[in-house]
Amino acid sequence: MELERFSAFHDAAHREGILFFYSGYFSQNIVAAMADAVRYRLKFQPAQEGTLRKVFSTFVEMSQNIVHYSAEPITDEAADNNELRFGAVSLGQQGGSYFVACGNPVPRDAVPALKEKIDRVRDMSAEDIKKAYREKLRSENDPASKGAGLGFLTLARDATRPINYAFEKLPNDANVFFYLKAVI
Amino acid sequence: MNDFYVPATPTSPEIDFRFSSNTLGIRGESYPENAAAFYSDALRQLRTYLATLDATHVEINVELKYFNSSSTKILYTLFGMLNDCVNKGNDVTLNWFHDEEDETILEFGEELYEDFGQLNFRPTAVSAA
Q: What is the ipTM of this complex?
C-alpha cells in the first residue's frame, strides 16, 4: 500500500469515529491485548464511566464470540481451549453514542437458528431482557453453548437500542459472513 | 484440607481460598477463554471444603473489576453453593466490592442478594483507581 493511500485509510477511519479496528485471527491472548488497548482508548473518552464499562464489556463479549464460534478456525473444530479463529471487530463513536461491531464467517446451515436467537432478543423490551437474563442465569447450561448462553442477552442488556445483524454471501458456499452491531 | 491458590493473569482472577482460616478471596479480572474450565478446580475444592463445615463462619471477599458472561454464570453457581452451606448451619458473609460507577456489577450483586438470601451480603463501593 502506498503511504498516501494508507494515510487516506487512516483519515477515513478517524472521520468515521473509529477508535479501534482489527481484522485477523482471534485467540484469547489477542483478545487480552486488544482489551488492554481498548481500555486505554476508552479512558480518555468524554463519557460516563458506566457507559464506557458497557462498551468494554460488549467489546470483550464480541471478540470472545469470534474465538469460540467463527467458522474459520486454524485450531481443531472440536477444541474448547487455545482456539484461533478468523474475524474482525471495530469500536467507535458516532453521534454521541458508541458502537461495537464484529464479523466472522459462520456455517450457512447455522444461519436460521442464529437469526431466530437474535430476533427473539431484538423483540424484547429492556424489562424483558432483564427478566430473560435472570432466567438464563438460574437455568442449567445449554449444551450447544461454550459460554453460558448469556452472550446475546448481555449484549442486549448493555445496548441502548436493539442489536443489529446482517449476513453476507461468501465465495465459499458452505459459509456466510455474519455481522453484529451494538450501540451503547 | 490444604489452602487453594491460583495467581491472577491479565484475564483471570486471583483465587485465594484459605480454607484453614475460613477466608476466601476472588480478585481481579474474569474473562478467561473458557470460564468453566478455569473455575472447575476451584469449585471442586470449594465443594469438598463446604461439605466439612459445621457451625462455621466463612468470609468471602469478591473484588472483580470485570467479568464476562460465562464467568457470571460460574459465580452464580459458586454463590449458590455458599448459600446451601448456610442452610446446613453455617454462616457466610459475602463482601462484594464493586466500583462505585459500575452499575452492572452492583446489579449482579443485588440479584445474588435476592436469590441467595441466606448470605450475609455486604456490598462495598470502591472508587475507581
A: 0.91
| B127 lies within 8 A of chain A by CB | no
- CA dist B98 and A114 (Å) reads 34
Rg (CA), chain A: 17
pLDDT at A1 over 90: no
Backbone angles phi, psi at A41, to 5 degrees: -60, -40
Q: Give residue B41's domain range.
A: 4-126
CATH number, position B112: 3.30.750
The Cβ of residue A1 has, within 10 Å, a number of other Cβ atoms equal to: 8
Q: Under a CB-based contact definition with an 8 Å cutoff, are residues B30 and B64 in contact?
A: yes
- B111/A61 touch (CB, cutoff 8 Å), yes or no: no
Q: How many domains does chain B have?
A: 1
Specify the amino acid at residue A81. Answer: N
| B101 contact A CB<8A | yes
Q: Are A118 and A151 in contact (CB under 8 A)?
A: no
By Cβ distance, the residue of A54, A81, A153 closest to B37 is: A81
**Chain A residues 108-167 within an 8 A CB cutoff of chain B:** 134, 137-138, 141, 146-151, 153-154, 158
Q: Give the residue-averaged pLDDT of B106-111.
A: 82
Q: For residue B113, which of B105, B104, B121 has the smallest C-alpha distance? A: B121
For the residues of A18-55, what is the DSSP string, one character each?
EEEEEEEEE-HHHHHHHHHHHHHHHHTSSS-HHHHHHH
The x, y and z cell numbers of residue A89, run together, are 471487530
Separation between Cα atoms, residue A131 and residue A128, nearest integer Å: 5
At B100, the pLDDT band (50, 70, 90 cuts) reads: confident
Distance from CA of residue A67 to its chain's centroid? 11
